[in-house]
Write a structure and sequence with these properties.
Layout: H1 3-22, H2 26-47
């Protein structure tokens, strides 16, 4: 496995860990859900 793949895998693991720990902060959780719902509404309006 080359260094680039190790970096990608390690980055994905650390990013997932960061997202999971942010979920336990109430103020951040509201922002995360708001961002996700905005993306969904934009995607559905484009499909129409």
């Amino acid at each position: 496995m080359n260094k680039v793949m190790i970096g990608i895998i390690l980055g994905a693991i650390l990013g997932a860990l960061d997202g999971m720990t942010a979920w336990f902060t109430p103020a951040v959780r509201a922002g995360m859900w708001g961002s996700y719902s905005d993306r969904l509404s934009r995607a559905s309006s484009r499909a129409s």
